[in-house]
Specification:
This protein is mainly alpha-helical. The chain is built from 6 helices and 2 strands. Helix 2 crosses helix 3 and helix 4 packs across helix 5. The model has no long low-confidence stretch (mean pLDDT about 85).
């Protein structure tokens, strides 16, 4: 099992899909990394040679992923909360941040329902 950026890559999956197990890498970025490294996207992760893995690692190091990306996202959220922006106040209250409705189905994001306003019976 290959290990890239502290993440175990599954051997039985195509390398295009296996790279998406790394936080911050989706299908399009995975394809771009493999094209730059000149590796076939249909190859299985277990079939890669050490040279190919090193080429993938070199390409991945050009991007912000895993711990650094998580830290950056959390810092952005904390900054919004500190400056009391609208999104920051929604984060503090545990409510949907991006304009979703709350009177019907805001429970899927944070578990048990939050009281938004008094509902008339």
């Amino acid at each position: 099992m290959a290990r890239i950026k502290g993440v175990d890559i599954p051997n039985n999956k195509r390398i295009e899909i296996a790279l998406t197990y790394i936080y911050g890498i989706g299908r399009s970025l995975s394809n771009q990394i493999l094209n730059d490294a000149k590796i076939d996207i249909n190859k299985r992760a277990g079939e890669l040679s050490i040279d190919e893995l090193n080429a993938i690692r070199d390409q991945i190091n050009k991007y912000t992923i895993e711990g650094d990306l998580r830290r950056e996202v959390n810092m952005n959220i904390k900054t919004k909360m500190e400056i009391n922006s609208y999104q920051g106040t929604r984060h503090k209250k545990g409510l949907p941040v991006r304009g979703q409705r709350t009177n019907r189905n805001a429970r899927t994001r944070k578990g048990k329902g939050k009281v938004v306003a008094n509902k008339k019976k």
